[in-house]
Amino acid sequence: MVRVGLTAERLAQAGAELADEVGFDQVTVSALARRFDVKVASLYSHVKNSQDLKTKIALLALEELADRGAAALAGRAGKDALAALANVYRDYAREHPGRYAAAQLRLSPEAAAASAGGRHAQMTRAILRGYDLTEPDQTHAVRLLGSVFHGYISLELGGGFSHSAPDTQETWSRILDALDALLRSWPEPAPARDPAGARIGEARQQV
Amino acid sequence: MVRVGLTAERLAQAGAELADEVGFDQVTVSALARRFDVKVASLYSHVKNSQDLKTKIALLALEELADRGAAALAGRAGKDALAALANVYRDYAREHPGRYAAAQLRLSPEAAAASAGGRHAQMTRAILRGYDLTEPDQTHAVRLLGSVFHGYISLELGGGFSHSAPDTQETWSRILDALDALLRSWPEPAPARDPAGARIGEARQQV
DNA sequence: GAATTTGCCTAAAGGCTTTAGGCAATTGCA
DNA sequence: TGCAATTGCCTAAAGCCTTTAGGCAAATTC
């Protein structure tokens, strides 16, 4: 009986590769066992269960992404920094769609705390140092950037933009221009309006 | 043997309810059969397979969402329209998280063509009539709005914003303010810069 | 009321997950 | 170097999900 030398790390790594090849939600303990040419039960000495395996892959992806982000951000500020980080996310998603999907996995609070999630938030905040925002507005801006990056990338990757005319690269750089412009002149809160401002009240009811 | 009266529509409807209760990816042919107190195999006369069931739920959700959007948009323009549509998406996601997740399902080209996807695109374009954008910029803006709505909602729903201070309702309305301001003064494309503009070249290589 | 269609059922095979218990390879230590 | 303890991968088995095939009974049609 030859030992293959399985470890949790090798499983996570191989799981990440598998995810890129067949999609994150096709990653299965069975498929991974086949890839190592080993019986399924053998993996259960290294991962608790399927969820645990997926979590390990997610943590790996978040870590890789944070490393790339940090490298890209070094020595840049303002719009350069903004574009650099944004491109890190987008490029990573294109090179490693499975890993990128893994990075979106909803983590348990404990896993989240141990993840590179905090580094990601820090990097976005670092970008905002190049713009002149008050503290609460900074948080709003962090959330906006996260939303745009994540939303755009997942729509683009999912083929949501495929059909129409201007290519997505063009849209992407125009969106970065737009975000830069927006952050340079971040608007005041709009005054509540009456006739149609009812919407605001409606939305609040549901919180 | 009492007949329950299964139809594809009832299955989709019940599947949508199940999705809201247990999460879209916990929706399974077996679970749905249990819910109707019927044997699993019976469902296979009405849906081709598990994927088909999920597609039907997705189509239903897209349809519902489009109906709500159309209703909300009626008689509104400019920022009112923007906020109305945005709130439709967000409110729907909160009321019906499973259906909302279903609506993000990647559809086959045929299913996509038969879906309410087109109506959604039309609604976003309709909003932009209240702003002064050239044709290609309109497409960029449609994509931006889609990205922000989808990205924000999925992050908020996934708990990505939970920890920090300003509540998410506040951020949401500030983001709507920001988008409105941005659309009112949509920026020119930034001129390509040299030293750090290398990014643009790098990104283009990968297309 | 008989014939046809339709709807739900039983049966069965195949796949993934997870646990329990076992033997052999490796490692650690005299 | 040789023995003991540990560790790694295996077999076995149970449970759940998917999907197909074929059958009987209820509903529909004429």
From TrEMBL, chains A, B:
DNA-binding interval(s): 28-47
UniProt GO MF annotations: DNA-binding transcription factor activity; transcription cis-regulatory region binding
Transcription recorded as keyword: yes
Annotated HTH tetR-type domain residues: 5-65
Gene3D superfamilies: Homeodomain-like (1.10.10.60), Tetracycline Repressor, domain 2 (1.10.357.10)
Any Pfam family the entry gives: TetR_N
Keywords: DNA-binding, Transcription, Transcription regulation
PROSITE patterns (UniProt xref): HTH_TETR_2
Highest taxon of the lineage: Bacteria
Region described as Disordered: spans on this chain: 187-207
Record bears the keyword Nucleus: no
Protein name (database record): TetR/AcrR family transcriptional regulator
Organism lineage: Bacteria, Bacillati, Actinomycetota, Actinomycetes, Streptosporangiales
